[in-house]
Amino acid sequence: MSEYSAGRSGFTPAYLDRVGSSFTDFLAVAAPDLLPGRRPVPQIPVGNVTPHGTTIVSVTYDGGVLMGGDRRATMGNLISSRDIEKVYPADAWSVIGIAGAAGIAIEMVRLYQVELEHYEKIEGLTLSLDGKANRLAQMIRGNLGAALQGLAVVPLFAGFDLDAAPGAAPGRIFSYDVTGGNYEERGYSAVGSGSLFARNSLKKTWRPDLDGDAATRSLVEALYDAADDDSATGGPDPVRRLYPIVYRVDAEGAVRLGDDEIAAVATGIIDERSAADGQG
């Protein structure tokens, strides 16, 4: 296509050249100002004046992986939102949970979703699970400047490995640090302000041979325990009908579990704890 016709169509050369299978790389050429990491970094810490998402938990089970998050976002000592969504499908076979600066995190998730979809359209196949984890690490690394000013984003990533060897667990979990460090976790993991308490809970309830229902119970109980000790983590709220958002990823793909199902699990935990306190 000639420069004249390209100009008449309204497209810049970046739109006409095949940069590669990475949408982020394409955006860096076509419109770099749209990338979160390319924007001006505040010169003072601003973490306390922006909403932050808190606790995300992920567990593997016999057949896949689960990820869940509470519904609370905080801004300093204030509750900025009681019903924020922190867990999203990354694509048909993986999920991502966000902890940190909520606005940047949600924008990063949306860009990451487009990144994976763009790769599929360009290459005609799905990126491997390791490749997905590495692409996310690159995006987190690009936000390092903002992270140093209190706008950190530290997600949790999990998915079903379509290329898993026979006999190997297909559900896998990846955690990150603010520099983009990528670490595969074994069995379970948690990020956010309540992660310490959630991990301690999972140490007692998680086992490698759990089925899907038992693993869901273990995950929801971990979030319940985190909310019991961490003020930034929201517990089940029967009055507002707010319960953790939980996704299951197995051979059928990523599916969000129904609110009624999670409410039943949370109610069961609350009833058991109430009965135990009554016996004390």
Task: Describe this structure as you would to a colleague.
The structure is a single chain. The protein has 280 residues and is of the alpha+beta class. It has a single domain, classed as Aminohydrolase, N-terminal nucleophile (Ntn) domain (Glutamine Phosphoribosylpyrophosphate, subunit 1, domain 1, 4-Layer Sandwich). The strands form 3 sheets. A 5-stranded antiparallel sheet has the order 12-2-3-13-14, covered by helices on one side.
Short description:
The chain is α+β, with helices and mostly antiparallel strands.
Q: How many domains make up the 3D coordinates?
A: 1
Briefly note the structural class of the backbone: alpha+beta
CATH fold topology: Glutamine Phosphoribosylpyrophosphate, subunit 1, domain 1
Give the biggest sheet. Answer: 5 strands, antiparallel
CATH architecture: 4-Layer Sandwich
Binned, the helix content reads 25-40%
Multimeric status of the protein: single chain
Q: Write down the overall geometry.
A: globular
Q: Gap between N and C termini, in Å?
A: 80 Å
The ordered string of helix (H) and strand (E) elements is: HHHEEEEEEEEHHHEEEEHHEEH
Which whole number gives the mean pLDDT? 86
What is the CATH homology-level superfamily?
A: Aminohydrolase, N-terminal nucleophile (Ntn) domain
Function: Component of the proteasome core, a large protease complex with broad specificity involved in protein degradation.
Family: Belongs to the peptidase T1B family.
Organism: Geodermatophilus obscurus
EC number: 3.4.25.1
